[in-house]
Write a sequence for this structure.
């Protein structure tokens, strides 16, 4: 331990007064007497970057998180000088910088304070490692709330908490455990019903203190690197989240099958066991698309090998599974077994691709295969090599997805559970130690895997899943939340983690349904499936050492509940796929916590359980045993109970009774929800019609439907179909206008339009302004079967003259 007296310890240091100000295009540099420079860059009117150095010059500007393909631009930028402050004004905000000490305050155009430095930027020299511990403190206002930060297993509102960002293998983690697997140094502040965001793009170990240590201060700091953060102004939380997601990037459309149900276990082997599992799904008619091979498929846990005793002919097996609609996903870990007879090891050794200790030897650590070396994925040449390794798995054998695990990176039997800090990394030509590269290691592995799978799966789309991730990883990969536990508390955690990941730009995420460690009761499993089908990634996984965790490991009632909810997910596939399209195009989170849905309503600021699945389906899981229903908050607006179709007015807390085979689900009035017929796997059937479930409203509502070939890249060439439905309901008539874009032609050509809550009996139908014979289209009391290409569908009550 180094004590203050041994060194010339200066403690916290602060910027002195500004001596010089200089503007270069969209950036303004403020230089102080003690060599601090603050560079403010205006990327958009509501997106400002703050970068500080204490050396009098900036080091190379490099970030793995920022998506360089995204465009930015502002409309207005004006720098003015006052007596005590400099002022930067854009079309959205006014940023004041104090001449005396560089403290920053940001206001909206009406002069309301949005975010204000307390001490602001300060630092402590790091004598041990060099560089600085960089710190920032902001004022936390009365009633201010904090959200986001990735996979944190804490209450959704982080006010009063301190969290740490250091990717960590946390087997059987618990509520409030810190740190976890992922690192997303992005939070959303909400004050006076106005939202803003902070993204602290620094890959060193970072901490955020949300009014925990001191009630009126929120601070964040890093053990090295630069104070480098982005400020995003809302005032709508939606704008903060979409801007953040735009900044750090969006994924491509996933193949639709990845939105189906996945079954996993550590591990299914040999081949006959895998087939027994997949056949059972078909026999019980529980839809399923993904089947996983965990580490035991390999030869002694060597990546890119097969255990030929368990899997004598993987290519044939994968093909047979594919014939039955199953896509095979295999695990690949970063640890490469030290074995001079193993080709991957030999290649990496020859090419000098493994991470090294500071003094030269390769970094050695134990993982599943025993002693391993680890590729340095922060080296572009290594990533390229790694990508090439997937040829056999993907192109030859036909594996459809790759699951990257243990990439925090996890090391066994060492106190820190990871690499020693002196390990060297290339960091894309910015050489550094593990202190800086640790948090990004998993993302670079997933990125290299993505490049490889994409190359060899082409013209189909790749599918990657990762355990560790840093901001921006969503461009390459989906994720899951690691080794959770089969407990009711973990069901609560899973619900929060998925909502939080969604508003942290990484929406394609799921939990191990039923829990990884320990054994769920049938009831817990049922409740977890009921929530899990509403998570963007939906997979049952378990450690396998506590018994079975397939739906049929439980009683008949649980099997029925599983089937019912997985079928519901498959019906909702077009709705889910459309949610994905909104995420891919506009960065819109797929799950929306209540506070995101209605930040004006302060009742939502501390809600944790209820969330919006997409824009129009409200879900509230049952999180306790023996429940006959639950109390919940129904947000403002009017809703239909999905099970009873009862219409109900929101903005209040209420008791909702539900049977064991239900959870509270509400549909927003006016919504048009597209449904596919039930399939056992994506693409099983070509259908002649799809249904539109229409929930009557007196007034207007917009809904959308996105479709394409469900795989491949033709959608980038305009071969997609995007319909916008405008619903308009009156007392005795309803109009649905459809606006279609894109060149994709769907197989089906009919819509089965089902109306709920219609206050009149259908007496008249007009399609594109022409009256049609009722008996040609009316197929049920409130049900029409119509050609899908209408632009206007009008229905009216009997006897209503138009
Ligand atoms: C890790 C993963 C888990 C996997 C196991 C064996 O614990 O988190 O999902 O099953 O390793 O590969």
């Amino acid at each position: 331990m180094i004590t203050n007296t041994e060194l010339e310890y200066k403690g916290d240091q602060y910027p002195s007064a500004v001596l010089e100000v200089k503007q270069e295009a969209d950036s303004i540099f403020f230089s102080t007497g003690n060599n601090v420079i603050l560079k403010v860059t205006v990327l958009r009117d509501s997106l400002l970057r703050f970068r500080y150095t204490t050396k009098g010059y900036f080091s190379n500007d490099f970030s793995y998180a920022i998506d360089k393909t995204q465009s930015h631009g502002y409309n207005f930028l004006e720098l003015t000088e006052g007596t005590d402050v400099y002022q930067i004004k854009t079309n959205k905000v006014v940023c004041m910088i104090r001449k005396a000490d560089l403290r920053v305050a940001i206001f909206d155009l009406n002069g309301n304070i949005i975010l204000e430095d307390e001490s602001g930027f300060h630092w402590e020299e790091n004598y041990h490692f060099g560089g600085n511990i960089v710190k920032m403190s902001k004022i936390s206002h009365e009633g201010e709330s904090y959200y986001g930060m990735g996979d944190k297993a804490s209450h959704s509102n982080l006010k009063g908490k301190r969290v740490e960002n250091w990717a960590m293998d946390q087997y059987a983690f618990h509520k409030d455990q810190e740190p976890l697997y992922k690192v997303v140094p992005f939070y959303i502040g909400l004050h006076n019903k106005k939202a803003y965001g902070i993204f602290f793009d620094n890959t060193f170990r970072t901490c955020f203190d949300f009014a925990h240590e001191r009630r009126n201060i929120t601070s964040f700091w890093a053990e090295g690197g630069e104070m480098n953060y982005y400020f995003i102004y809302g005032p709508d939380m939606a704008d903060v989240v979409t801007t953040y997601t735009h900044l750090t990037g969006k994924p491509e459309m996933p193949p639709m099958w990845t939105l189906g149900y996945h079954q996993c276990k550590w591990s299914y082997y040999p081949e006959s066991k895998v087939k027994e599992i997949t056949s059972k799904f078909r026999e019980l008619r529980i839809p399923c698309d993904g089947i996983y091979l965990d580490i035991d498929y390999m030869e002694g846990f060597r990546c890119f090998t097969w255990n030929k005793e368990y899997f004598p002919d993987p290519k044939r097996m994968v093909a047979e599974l594919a014939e039955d609609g199953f896509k095979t996903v295999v695990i690949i870990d970063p640890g490469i077994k030290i074995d001079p007879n193993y080709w991957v090891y030999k290649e990496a050794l020859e090419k000098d691709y493994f991470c090294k200790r500071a003094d030269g030897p390769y970094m050695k650590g134990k993982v599943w295969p025993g002693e391993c070396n680890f590729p340095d994925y922060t080296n572009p040449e290594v990533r390229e090599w790694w990508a090439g390794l997937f040829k056999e798995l993907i192109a030859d054998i036909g594996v459809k997805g790759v699951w990257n695990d243990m990439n925090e990176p996890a090391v066994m039997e060492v106190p820190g559970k990871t690499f020693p800090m002196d390990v060297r990394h290339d960091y894309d030509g910015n050489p550094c130690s593990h202190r800086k590269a640790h948090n990004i290691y998993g993302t670079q592995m997933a990125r290299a895997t993505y490049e490889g799978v994409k190359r060899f799966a082409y013209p189909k789309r790749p599918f990657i899943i990762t355990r560790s991730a840093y901001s921006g990883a969503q461009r390459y990969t989906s994720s899951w939340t690691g080794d959770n536990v089969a407990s009711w508390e973990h069901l609560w955690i899973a619900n929060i983690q998925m909502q939080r990941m969604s508003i942290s730009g990484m929406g394609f995420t799921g939990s191990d349904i039923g829990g990884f460690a320990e054994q769920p009761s049938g009831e817990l499993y049922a409740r977890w499936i009921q929530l899990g089908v509403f998570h963007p990634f939906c997979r049952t996984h378990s450690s396998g050492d506590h018994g079975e965790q397939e739906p049929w490991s439980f009683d008949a009632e649980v099997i029925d509940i599983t089937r019912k909810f997985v079928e519901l997910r498959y019906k909702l596939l077009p709705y889910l796929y459309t949610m994905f399209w909104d995420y891919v195009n506009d960065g819109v989170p797929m799950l929306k916590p209540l506070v995101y849905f209605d930040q004006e309503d302060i009742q939502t600021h501390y809600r944790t359980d209820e969330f919006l699945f997409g824009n129009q389906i409200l879900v509230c899981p049952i999180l306790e045993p023996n429940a006959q229903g639950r109390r919940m908050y129904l947000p403002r607006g009017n809703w239909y109970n999905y099970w009873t179709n009862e219409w109900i007015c929101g903005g209040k807390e209420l008791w909702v009774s539900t049977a064991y085979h239900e959870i509270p689900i509400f549909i927003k009035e006016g919504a048009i929800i597209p449904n596919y017929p039930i399939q056992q796997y994506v693409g099983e059937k070509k259908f002649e019609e799809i249904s539109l479930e229409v929930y009557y409203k007196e007034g207007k509502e917009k809904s959308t439907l996105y479709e394409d070939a469900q795989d491949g890249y033709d959608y980038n060439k305009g071969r997609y179909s995007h319909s916008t439905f405008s619903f308009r309901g009156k007392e005795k008539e309803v109009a649905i206008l459809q606006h279609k874009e894109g060149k994709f032609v769907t197989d089906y050509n009919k819509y089965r339009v089902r109306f709920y809550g219609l206050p009149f009996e259908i007496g008249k139908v007009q399609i594109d302004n022409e009256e049609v014979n009722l008996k040609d289209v009316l197929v049920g009391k409130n049900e029409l079967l119509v050609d899908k290409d209408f632009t206007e569908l009008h229905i009216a009550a009997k006897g209503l003259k138009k």
Summary: The chain is about 20% helix and 30% strand. The first helix runs from residue 237 to 248. The CA atoms of residues 299 and 307 lie 4 Å apart. The radius of gyration is 27 Å.
